[in-house]
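Quick one - inputs below.
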Amino acid sequence: MQITFPHMGDMVVAVKALFQELGFTVVPPPPISRKTLNLGVKYSPEFACLPFKINLGNFMEALDRGADMIIMGGGCGPCRFGYYAEVQEEILREMGYDFSMYVIEPGIFSNLRKIRESFGPVSARKVLSAVRLAWNKALAIDEIYRLVLLKRAREAKEGQVNKLYADFLRKIDETMSVDRVKRIKREYREILEDMTGAYKRGIPLKVGLVGEIYLVLEPFVNLEIEKKLGELGVEVERDLYMTNWLLNFLHLRNDGKLIKRAASKYLDSFVGGHGIDTIGNTVRYARKGFDGVIQLGPFTCMPEIIASSILPAVSKGEGIPVLTFFFDEHSADAGIRTRLEAFVDLLERKKVQARKGTGYKGEIVYGQ
Amino acid sequence: MKIGIPRALMYHYYYPAWQAFFRELGLTVLLSPVTNKGILDQGVKAAVDDICLPFKVYYGHVLSLRDKVDYLFVPRFISLGKYNFICPKFMGLPDMLRANIEGLPELIDPVIDLRRGIFPWRQVAYKIGRKFSKNIWEIEKAYRRARDSYRHFLQLQREGYETEEAMLLTSRRGKIPVGDREFAAGRESGSDSHKGRAGDKARGIKLGLVGHSYLLNDAYLSMRIVERLRKMEARVFTVEMLAEEVLEKAARRQGKPAFWYFNRQIMGAAYHLFQEKEIDGLVQVTAFGCGPDSLVRELIDIRGKRIGMPILNINLDEHSGEAGILTRLEAFVDLIERRRRKCR
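Output:
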């Protein structure tokens, strides 16, 4: 059995470790490329959202390389993601691929039974050690990336942080022991924390990133927006991380309450996906004194459309500039870059003027 | 006191119940006008670009009612069945309106979530009712009126009345008793032929027509697709004509049926019509930017392809042209006729 799964940011490192440690052969899809996108777009429904298309492209490329078992997330709505697997399976079968698919649906006991059926018996000890390794890798990646998002704004040499992060990822990927993972994490955390040089723009600017999780986590689809912001000298912070999401999903943490309370003035219901997180976190970032918020979502994404219709009111109410980007297969680098630059310039002007006390602080921009 | 109800979205499913309920409580119900260009344009301007067509129109209807009423009825729909959701945009609708439209009257926005509780509808009715009446018995009476009206309305739809007709008949209840076959038969021999046997004329092909009711039953948005098909003397089967149990059973043919209530019904209708081989072709109408439609449509397409069913997909947005739609419908009907002749 050759296992594959869809890409989502750097998660591949942890998931690969999980299944390898369990003793399976893993065939991860090749890194997302233009070709992946084109394949996905060609065989997906025209109006499906972008993650659907990329997933499908991933599966096709992985199946072509010999994978025969797809692991995919499921769910029961109302976001479309919960229905991806059902449609993708039908499309792939219609195309003549032969494979089996394991969809992780909610429900612990039904999952345990299904796992036994699909993968055969695996010892509990093996599972525990595999989960421990994968979890530590995921934690290490998220912790270091949190620093990367901040430190790009104050690196001495252009591209220095990116290079550090690439090295770190490679090392984490290669190692198979929890202790080594922890050691590597410590090493890189120290290097990054020591980077306390001057800000590229002269002043610190902090932007919060909100939106749909796939678009936030996957640099290929958001056209490396975090890197671009870093190059512009902006510190980026976000609450959406794979480990964070999992902890909340398993009820080991409860940010949801906090977010819900923050959002309640503007959005008083859960709306699926990350709609309420987008609103709630925007409010929280505004109250924490961030300079701006950027929302990312796939074109036609239902929860993010709701959020984007409400964000202007949040922007006005909390006094924080907000910029929304919806991405699809036609999104182009130049357009995004221009709008980002204009937005960051605006944030800078606003901050400088507020500092000088020229009284010009009311300017709020929103929209797309 | 006046309460406004926008003639869009859930209006097409529940208006008879709402009307009866509020009237019984002593309110004047004001309905926005039938969708027209002005309403659509206003809605397009007020809503965000990326939202789907029916919601843009809803904004337009809200704007046309804004200054004329004391209350606006905008329920927050979350779920209409045990394992179901509906499109999340319904969940955020009152909040979106508050954020985007200034000077709104007070919104009556009860949460409608039928996943939990016993008698969830009655609970909702009491929650709204308490705002307008102190008398519990009065609220109960209003609730029962609403329930009866709604059942009557559903019954008429199953018998083949169009939604608008069924609404009219329900509000003028008493004159035409449910199940009056003679009346229904009398209608068939007239201009429309959807109910059947009498309509089996020269062309008389049978078509399934699936799509959200709030799209198909809005004459302006759907460009009267139902009527046009009937004019071409096709017998048209819609989702509303099938009983809920039939739809649910057929939808379960998909390993994991769609979890959006209306799309589950659409899926069920399409699969039911495929299986029973009642139809010669299927017309699917979707709105541009509709999330659930984008995926469910694909599944119906795949299934249709496997059994060689001709399917016409029509995607509507605010720029759709009437001539284009008509041409495609005509071409589709012609194609099916030719196929039928060949088969014989």
